[in-house]
Predict the structure.
Amino acid sequence: MTGTYDVLLARLTSAFDAVAVGADPVLRPSERSDYQSNGVMALAKSQGVNPREMAERVLAGLDLADVADVEVAGPGFLNLTLTTAFLDAQLRELVDDDRLGVGRLEGRVAVIDYSAPNVAKEMHVGHLRSTVIGDALVRMYRFRGYRVIARNHVGDWGTPFGMLIEHLLDLGEEEAIASLSIGDLDGFYRAARTKFDADDAFKERSRARVVALQGGDPETRRLWRLLVDESVAYFSEVYAALDVTLTPADVVGESFYNPMLDEVVADLARAGLLVESGGALCVFPEGFTNRDGEPLPLIVRKSDEGFGYAATDLAAVRDRVANLHADEMLYVVGAPQGQHFEMVFAVARAAGWLPESVRCEHVAFGNVLGPDRKMFKSRSGETVKLIGLLDEARDRAEAALALRSSSLTTQERHELATQIARAAIKYADLSTDRSRDYVFDLDRMIAFEGDTGPYLQYAHARLRSIFRRLDDGFDAHAVHFVLAESAERDLALGILAFPEALDAAIATLHPHRLAGYLFDLAQRFTAFYEACPVLSAPEPSKGERLALCELTARTLSLGLSLLGIEAPEQM
């Protein structure tokens, strides 16, 4: 089907073009049933005409009789009120549409880089936002029709692996793997670091091991692979617990790009972009300066001939365009890395690796804060582990469910509590503008009231409970939507706005656009449910209201799934 907003935009554009070729009307859907176009004002100003007169000219050319009643209001606004017949047709199309009005794009490839933990380190709250935001974008892009290639750019290369491999050998391979297999990655890493800082002999062995690793020594590579594989297995357990779609196949770490780095340097040299500075090979992309106004370098190869993050990220860009044929590349990484990525993208474009036709964006996000509005830490001052967050949220949800319902078995309550815990954690993140910090407050996040994940889950379960109490059959295909009550019309408009909300979230890379829409839809349903009896209503109102409930439940379920949140049938 063609979305409501698309129909209006196409008709308005045609009317504007009839008045002035090349006009670019800006249509903004309001919170209610009206639509306004401020394009009239811009067009009137450009032609030196009174805005109200211009609005009348546009109105004369509008072909909206089957869609909306239109009137000129105020200084030159066009107010559009959708007709009941148009809304009925749009809603009836949704009855058999599993996609609820969302079209499919074909042939576009998106590479989405997110999560990116480090090998031999546990995932903590610092990985939460990248993982949750990235996974929501992956789900939305895939639903929209993109072929999405997820990239989990883990830290699996570099000097720390010398000390980690030597520590593994000191412990004995069997004991070390046993320790890592139970998820004690931090303990393993801390022990290696302590030994490295205190023991000069161990330090020398570690440095020699790095040389062996980089030189391709088979035994060293085998031990390194053990560390990587055990870490990836642990990451997979965390992703499964959070219901995140990343798999081991998506792990493409720093080591993958290592063989490409010499060619990156050679290409930059051939392009005349490399400059030697202090023994390092650098590129000075145009427009980047330090505090003193001096050109800022992107260091590609260090003075010791080692490579840093810039070289690896340049190799990744080059690979993703040339070999993966990406049309879009998204990097879901914290805001402090903003300048780094801007410089990498600028150098990649200058080198010819990143065509202007490829959308390449740093999807930046703020921090997770504690109740004191400082970086979120445990009471002992340590970084909070992701599994620990989920466990605590599940315990609280399970306790709340025990007070609310006695009909659930212990196993059912545990499974539902897990779904609620995920919703609480993910929605708190995704409902916040990603560019802002937010406070991690489980008491608020786990609540069944307010703008929370559990509230939306409860709204869906409440809708489904209506159909469990339905005595007779219900055929949505036989319904005609009269929308006699204002609450019915308001809910209908909310349902029809789903494609627009999803497109806005994808276009801006802001999942909170979709989260905010779902919360608004749930509120519209609450207002509708309070104003309009459903099961006790006479026909045909009963059938119409049941159909609205069915469409609302499906929209909430689909929308939540695109945020990575489950929609339980019963709570």
Notes: The chain has a mean pLDDT of 89. The longest strand covers residues 68-73. The CA atoms of residues 538 and 546 lie 12 Å apart. The two ends are 33 Å apart (CA to CA).
